[in-house]
Each structure stands twice: as C-alpha cells, then as structure tokens.
Amino acid sequence: MVIIGIVLGTLATLTYAIEFQNWSAACTAALSVAFACVTLKIYWSYKKDTIFGMAPFNFLAFFFWLNAIAFPLNLGGCIACYVIAGVQKQSALDFHSENLWYTGTWLFVAAKWSLQNAFFSRRYSRAIFGSSSDPKLSTTVQIEPEPSEDPAKWKY
C-alpha cells in the first residue's frame, strides 16, 4: 500500500504542478510522498533487519520525533486550509490555480503518514531497543527460560 501511495502521490504532484498550476497542492502532495517514503524506509529496514544497526537515540530522534512534531503541524495546516477555503468560498470543483481544498486534503494525507510513522517507529523501537524511549535508561535484562516440567511428576 505504501508503494501505491508513493506512486499516486507522485502522479498527483506532477498533475497539480503541470496541468493545474496549483503549487500549494503540488508541494503538499510532494510532502505527503516524502512521509510515505519514510514509512517505506522504516518498514523495509525492519523487515530486512538493517534497523538493528541504527543507534537507538538516532532512530528515535529522527523517525519518531520528526514525525511526532510534523503530525500536529500537518493537521493544523489542513484545518487552516479548510477554514480559509470555506471563508473565501472557494469551489472544490475548480482544479486550476490555487485551491486550498486540495492543499488541505494533501496536508491531511501527510498528517496520516506522519502519525503512522511516529506510531511504527515508536513500536519498532520498543521491540528492538527496549521499553524505554531514552537509551540511557533502557537496560537489558536476561531472563532465564523456565525448566521444562516432567509430565511424570504432574499431580492429577
């Protein structure tokens, strides 16, 4: 699904820029593609076990905090675009020139990708580096497996 999102976002970026001259929608569609590429990077690194080579602090600092900060900014931009488009009585049917309805929609898509990235990077970091988000606080605990019980000693 991520690859489909990247392809469709790239096509939308080119369409908004070349055909409709809607530069704000083209830029926000490109921003959404960038967040989708980060999603693909996180997922691919986890599946190919290359994520283990990253330092825990760098992983959290880049992937989690970047996306955790970007999410409210994208969502706020989406709401602002919708409010401004409604106040200015812009038509959602006019694709040519600036149209904040489409800019807001692509900011919503970017907010979705950034929230998903923050969620996945947090979950993967807990699975890989331990439960603490601060690598200085996370400690590795060796748990000994329980000895297997002999069924002959079971009491019925």
TrEMBL record:
GO terms under cellular component: endosome membrane; lysosomal membrane; plasma membrane
Positions of region (Disordered): 133-156
Compositionally biased tracts (Polar residues): 133-142
Name of the molecule in the record: Uncharacterized protein
Domain of life: Eukaryota
Signal peptide as annotated in the record: 1-17
Taxonomic placement: Eukaryota, Metazoa, Ecdysozoa, Nematoda, Chromadorea
Entry membrane topology: Multi-pass membrane protein
Primary residence: membrane
Location of the protein in the cell: Endosome membrane; Lysosome membrane
GO molecular function: heme binding; heme transmembrane transporter activity
UniProt record similarity statement: Belongs to the HRG family.
Protein keywords: Endosome, Lysosome, Membrane, Signal, Transmembrane, Transmembrane helix, Transport
InterPro entries: HRG
Bilayer-crossing regions: 27-46, 58-85, 100-120
